[in-house]
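Example record used in the benchmark description.
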Amino acid sequence: MNDNLIIIPFPTPETSENQNKIRKKREPNIFITYRNEMMKKKPLNMTMTEYSKLVSDWWRKIPEYEKAKRKRQYQINRDQKQLLNEKWDPRDTRYGFSAESSEAEELAEGLLSIVTVFVANGMCSVTNRRRKLMSKKIKNSKIPAGKT
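Model output (structure tokens):
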């Protein structure tokens, strides 16, 4: 009877490997962000399906300059978030932060507090008030081109 016994390990190695992979949450696109804003104003007597169709129609009727403005704001927010998470590796320690990532987070918080972003005519320019104080940290970090 023992000769015919088949032993199958549980869980299978493929399953346990997939569980260790960390999936990043996908950022909502511009329309979804708009839809979420509009959902806060949804009347109680309207179904979600009806209201979603209505919001979709509103989105199509929004002028292109308004959509462009939302797109610029979305890109600025995305870039700031990327700067914060640049060195973050969730598998580094049991708490999810490495020494490098906390340094990057500290740098990003400092930059966000001293950086003023001006958006005009589709151009994004960034001015830094304390360039001398932060220059050493900025040179040592990986900041995307055009952000200083």
